[in-house]
# Entry
Amino acid sequence: MILVTGGAGYIGSHLVMALLEKGQNVIVFDSLELGHIETIETLQKYGNLKFIKGNLRNLDEIRGVFMSNKDIEAVVHFAAYSQVAESVKNPQKYYYNNVYGTLNLLNAMLEFGVKKIVFSSTAATYGEPEYTPIDEKHPQNPINPYGNSKLMVEKIMDDYDRAYGLKSVRLRYFNVAGADSKARIGEWHEPETHLIPNVLKATPDKSFKMFGDDYNTPDGTCIRDYINVEDLAQAHVLALEYLKNGGETNFFNLGTKNGNSVKEVFSVCEDVKGCEIPLEICPRREGDPAILVADNTKAKKTLDWEPKNDLRYSVETAYHYEFKNKG
Ligand code: UDP
# Structure
């Protein structure tokens, strides 16, 4: 049995689908504050999925999960807040949830002898890039509370390995994109802040806001590394296998090694939609570095991972999901 925290959310739900399709039994623990019960109901059609509503900030709730499910072999931990701007305004919320909540999870794991965890970390732990593409040796100097909260958890995990033998794989995501290939699940954030869904959702009344076209990049817009959500889910499956096979604590960048500018993403979206998308050029968004691209060599070598889907595929699946579910 695999326990997935935050399995009703965007990335977590795609991992749950991948695990269920492999015949794996799964428990999802999710507060449903940001995740959706509809996502759980969809996932339950595809395998043996037990859902437990609860919050990691409540130690007893997460202890109860381990107490009544003695066959949990490993945990994949997605549950977290992840909006950079919000974390700057309200760091308390981020540290309390992302750090304290994770401490409760880790302590419950240790109490019940579960010592394998795959953790959703982020490129935001690197902070302002000193070189590109970013490999795992790049210094980790986050520039906002969100990145700090994720880096703190990474450090806690190192200490818990040394002291208690807890083995962790930390996956540092770059820009996650796309939806399930059959449009069963997809990206569903309220409010939506991410590029691709915002471009696809734009209407003549609510045009897409492009944050800055005066960066030091070839077309003036920010460059990001868009990694397909199903490829990302596959990396988690491989990380679980790595731990199951006795792998040591480790950390990997998950990206494609290819950068695309905001303007390039915008034009792929127009192409996929087959129409012009209303566009408004706005000032830069605070805290956006010009270029963030992953060196993914380590994940490819150690986990035998290979991202298969390109940006266009991610946009197509995101569009199909949006169209199917919300017209
Ligand atoms: N972006 C934009 N308009 C939006 C959302 C995002 O121009 O409505 C830009 C943003 O400034 C960044 C890129 O798109 O350069 C990716 O942003 P996103 O929020 O998707 O991911 P992030 O890079 O912040 O993790």
User: Anything to note?
Assistant: The two ends are 36 Å apart (CA to CA). Residues 2-178+226-256 form a domain with the Rossmann fold fold (CATH 3.40.50.720). The longest strand covers residues 116-122. The mean pLDDT is 97.
